[in-house]
Amino acid sequence: MKVFLVFAALAALSVASAVGLTDSQKAEGKLRAQACAKQEGITKEQALALRSGNFADSDPKVKCFANCFLEQSGFLANGQLKPDVVLAKLGPIAGEARLKEVQAKCDSIKGTDKCDTGYKLYKCYSENRAQI
Fold this sequence. Notes:
One of its GO terms (cellular component) is extracellular space. By secondary structure, this protein is mainly α. Helices cover about 65% and strands about 5% of the residues. A two-stranded antiparallel sheet has the order 1-2. Helix 2 (about 25-40) runs antiparallel to helix 4.
């Protein structure tokens, strides 16, 4: 299942080409996305919608997919964001100052459970990707 390329983590979606990920980083993101899509049972259409920034699908599987991807990337653990890891992995790619601005907007977001938290964080970073 070809799901989507994700920007080395949170701001994934369509930011990949904008921040200049290496082919290796793109491949790793794709593998994570494929594994999480299979694990959570989402469709290709659901994954593509999420990739394009369409957050209208509130299917719990989609939320758990976003959480899985962030966990597999090392940005979340047990529903808790790891801001230091986000900064360490994405700062060199996106620019530390710009990433910190997005972190200030997004990192305190909490959902009703770990899947909801992951989804909301994914959404926030996606919606603020222009700043990264």
